[in-house]
Amino acid sequence: MRLKYPASIKIVRIPCTGKVDILHILRAFEMGADGVYAVGCMEGDCHYDSGNFWARKRVEQARKILDTIGIGGERVQMYNLSAGEGPLFAEYAVEMHEKILKLGPNPLKLAKKKAA
Amino acid sequence: MIVADKKPIEEIIGEIKDYTTILILGCNECVTVCEAGGKKEVGILASALRMYFLNQGKDVTIDERTLERQCDHEYLEEIRDVADQYDAIVSLACGVGVQFTAEKYHAVPVIPGVNTCFLGATETRGLWTERCQACGECILARTGGICPVSRCAKRILNGPCGGASNGKCEINKELDCAWQLIIDRLKALGRLDDYENISPIKDWSTDRAGGPRRVVREDVQL
Ligand code: SF4
Ligand code: SF4
Fold it and tell me: Would you say the CB of residue B149 lies under 6 angstroms from ligand 2?
């Protein structure tokens, strides 16, 4: 399966989405990411029982914080799929890519340019 | 432990918006355990604030530091060299830590980053409940190990009151009646006779009624 997904997406591999912390998401934005999404296993199928539920919670918290500080919570998203769903993985990547294109770049990039 | 809750970021922003170099100061003890003011929360708040100010076009430096405790001189001394470099310190410790930091570093405004709530326990992750109000004269030996001062809404010492129904408190149907818990526990311990003993009037001068309190222990003083 040689599926294509947008080149704009950088994959950060972690053992389980339960490892994703709000801090990782926030730091990604601080470092200039335009959007962040976590792809976890299907709910109920977590090898560690609840990793993907933790991820969802943290994604939600990061959203709230990003909304509060004016970066936009909609730039963060949680997806679930099973390991065998390569085509869906590519589909979500395209969906996220398009969503971010619509939202435009991370406002901090512009702010940094202005400050420089 | 001392249980605290996070303050909304908006509120913290409102307090620090006029400063340009700010230290976010966490505490490794109670507030770490209740996930309100430890190293991780310092990182999250600092990151959010940096992004907020940058987005506002303001050049603000936000540094992070977490001390072992903020209620002890020796740990607070660790920021002696740097404290003066900041326009403000946001302390994520409990109210004790905030005040002790402020007392030590007079020239720097210290702003609380959490709401200090009570002395309590972690029932499950994300749920903390009150267990003690530090009344200064513990009566748990007589009440089956359940505290009517902190867990009975009316703080009564010979309960339950007439408002208890089906083991729940009248202020909230979700809340266990502390006196029901005490009776159940005394029963389980085979000490229901204790319940028949009327509690004497409690000396509340050791509680807040006596004004700010001190513990003096000459045996451990130098
Ligand atoms: S400053 Fe407060 S939170 Fe930190 S250790 Fe002391 S009592 Fe606990
Ligand atoms: S009786 Fe006083 S010291 Fe003992 S647990 Fe209750 S409030 Fe705390």
Answer: yes
DSSP B110-148: EEE-EEEEEEEEEEETTEEEEEE---SS--GGGTTT--H
Is residue A2 assigned to a domain? Answer: no
The verdict on a CB contact (< 8 Å) between B55 and A115 is no
Domain containing A106: what range? 17-110
CA dihedral A22, A28, A32, A34 (to 10 degrees): -70
The closest ligand to the CA of B142 turns out to be 2
Residue-wise pLDDT tens digits, B43-68: 999 999 999 999 999 999 999 999 99
Report how far residue A61's alpha carbon sits from residue B119's, in angstroms, rounded to the nearest whole number: 26
Task: Kindly report the pTM of this predicted structure.
Answer: 0.94
Count how many domains chain A has.
1
Q: Are B89 and B17 in contact (CB under 8 A)?
A: no
Indicate whether A88 belongs to any domain: yes
Within a domain: residue A106?
A: yes
**ipTM for the assembly:** 0.94
Taking CB atoms and an 8 Å limit, are A26 and B48 in contact across chains? yes
Domains and CATH numbers, chain B: 2-118 (3.40.50.2300), 133-209 (no CATH)
Let me know if residue A116 belongs to a domain.
no
